[in-house]
From TrEMBL:
Signal peptide positions on this chain: 1-23
UniProt feature, compositional bias: Low complexity: 477-488
UniProt keyword annotations, A-Z: Hydrolase, Metal-binding, Metalloprotease, Protease, Signal, Zinc
Acetylation found in the keyword field: no
Superkingdom classification of source: Bacteria
Domain annotation Peptidase M1 membrane alanine aminopeptidase: ranges: 308-454
Pfam families in alphabetical order: Peptidase_M1 (PF01433), Peptidase_M1_N (PF17900)
Cofactor(s) required for function per UniProt: Zn(2+)
Span list, region Disordered: 477-505
Reactions this protein catalyses: Release of an N-terminal amino acid, Xaa-|-Yaa- from a peptide, amide or arylamide. Xaa is preferably Ala, but may be most amino acids including Pro (slow action). When a terminal hydrophobic residue is followed by a prolyl residue, the two may be released as an intact Xaa-Pro dipeptide
E.C. designation(s): 3.4.11.2
Protein name, entry field: Aminopeptidase N
Segments forming domain Aminopeptidase N-like N-terminal: 49-218
Length: 505
């Protein structure tokens, strides 16, 4: 009711002084966006449409400084609102006017604008900040990774807090301009297309643009000494890859994998439809982490992913996420199967393509290798809980669920669903329930029992996901010799399992 603010006359003025009626209508935005897995993540009361980050980073000291300009729209009458952030803030402006600010909780920056903000209006928030990200932690951890020549922000679900203020939840996607000045001879890598570089007084500025909606955890920044390669996919999408100059013995295998990005994007396009973004590629910094992450348009790969030689399976997994996870993002973190079940299934399709075991063989192997009393079957991929969000079951049982769907609706319908989903929810957010509804719409079948059995029941389903009861256990074709009745380990198995290094940590 902001109209009361401008009510004319002495009566209105005295009322404003006596009882702050209008201020009572303007309430603080919630300190969390309402995700039950992570109650403090994200914030209430506004929706961000664009982040403009103009930064400078010094690798020698890990000092990051700059200005973030956020374009947002209020979703309630706001007396104040939060951003999620850990670095040191020196000034905040809201719609041009200086705002007061303080910190609270583990990662809240509380901003009180000089004038309350009416619902449904555009807001520009400018945050000036600096800090040494490696000295900041929340809940006792940090996900900012320093390297010998720089640093990297790439983690899930928390990575933004260490480098830019945000509404940190995938349900509030926005476009990004990320411009970072680094000492000459060092590069800054981020999402999207490199719009420009410029050099001045010993500093080189790299300006990147990600022009399609992007979740905060999919924004990435890498500073270091890289060798950058460029190309285009068959469909004309620009490819930009970057390799740390000190990958040592992993250098060849990293390049032999990531340089196949264009080929793999083209192959995935056959299953998922047109690639949704303006650019694609990956980078391999000299980090000691083990995982890979589907950072939008510019995938993060740990060097360790290539320690045993080339690994196209991990490239397939992360690029599959560009459709399943990045283009169509989850609504809440409980919907993680929307991401991981399908990225894992894409690895199974790649295994089939490479002649290293079919998706059915991989599904049968997962089913057979976990006995009924294995904790594996206690995890419900459709709502695994925050502690099991990245459990192997979310990936493997999640992919078996996808195979079960394929068997239930038949290949033609299944592949129509696989390709139709990214179109149905392009650049948006969706839940496990939305996927079930969509699959039911396309197939004309009720799938409640199938989804419940494979995604929600905390027990091993009575029979494997099979194409009719007659093929309970598909004949094994390769890999380790089968023991009586048990399917052989598909040849691709170990390579696929090795992309899981995140869950063992
Ligand atoms: N989404 C990543 C993948 O499947 C894996 C992942 C889970 C991860 N948790 C993470 C990566 C934490 C980095 C940090 O490829
Ligand atoms: Zn994944």
């Amino acid at each position: 009711m902001h109209r009361r603010l401008i009510a004319p006359g002495a009566l209105a003025a005295s009322l404003l002084l006596a009882i702050p009626a209008s201020a009572a209508d303007y309430t603080p935005g919630a300190p969390g966006i309402g995700d039950p897995y992570y109650p403090a993540y994200g914030n209430g009361g506004y929706d961000v449409s664009h982040y403009d980050l103009r930064l400078q980073y010094q690798p020698a000291t890990d000092e990051l400084q700059g200005t973030a300009t956020l374009l947002a729209t209020t979703t309630q009458d706001l007396s104040r609102f939060d951003l999620d952030f850990l670095l040191d803030v020196s000034e905040v402006r809201v719609n041009g006017a200086k705002a007061s600010f303080t910190t609270s909780g583990q990662h809240e920056l509380e901003i009180t604008p000089a004038t309350p903000l009416p619902k449904g209006t555009p807001v520009t928030v400018v945050v000036r900040y600096s800090g040494v990200p490696s000295t900041k932690s929340a809940y006792g951890f940090s996900t900012w990774h320093r390297t010998p020549d720089g640093a990297v922000a790439a983690d899930e679900p928390e990575s933004a807090w260490w480098w830019f203020p945000s509404n940190d939840h995938p349900s509030d996607k926005a476009t990004y301009d990320v411009s970072v000045a680094v000492p000459d001879g060092t590069q800054a890598i981020s999402n999207g297309t490199l719009q420009s570089t410029s050099s001045r007084l010993g500093w080189t500025r790299y300006s990147w643009r990600s022009n399609k909606p992007q979740a905060t955890y999919l924004a990435t920044l890498a500073i270091g000494k890289f060798d950058i390669t460029t190309g285009t996919t068959a469909a004309g999408v620009p490819v930009v890859n970057a390799y740390s100059k000190d990958l040592g013995d992993n250098d060849g295998a990293a390049r032999a994998s990531v340089e196949r990005t264009g080929e793999i994007v083209d192959w995935l396009t056959g299953y998922f439809g047109p690639y949704p973004f303006s650019s694609v590629g990956g980078y391999v910094p000299n980090t000691t982490t083990g995982y890979a992450l589907e950072t939008q348009t510019r995938v993060y790969y740990s060097p360790r992913q290539f320690a045993n030689g080339s690994n196209t399976s991990v490239v397939v997994h992360e690029l599959a996420h560009q459709w399943y996870g990045d283009d169509v993002s989850l609504k809440g973190w409980k919907d993680i199967w929307i991401n991981e079940g399908f990225a894992r299934y894409a690895q199974w399709l790649w295994s089939e393509h490479e002649g290293e075991g079919t998706a059915q063989e991989l599904a049968d192997y997962v089913y057979a290798s976990h006995p009924a009393d294995d904790a594996f079957w206690k995890v419900a991929p459709g709502d695994p809980g925050p502690d099991n969000q990245f459990d192997t079951a979310v990936y493997d049982r999640g992919a078996v669920a996808v195979q079960a769907l394929r068997n239930e609706v038949g290949d033609d319908t299944f592949f129509a669903i696989l390709k139709g989903w990214p179109r149905e929810h392009a650049y948006g957010n969706a839940s496990v329930g939305d996927f079930q509804k969509y699959a039911e719409k396309v197939s004309g079948k009720s799938l409640a029992t199938l989804f419940d059995t494979w995604l929600f029941e905390p027990s091993k389903p009575a029979a494997p996901a099979a194409r009719g009861a007659s093929i309970a256990v598909a004949p094994a074709t390769a890999g380790a010799p089968a023991t009586a009745g048990a399917p052989a380990q598909p040849r691709s198995w170990k390579k696929i399992a090795a992309t899981d290094s995140v869950h063992s940590g």
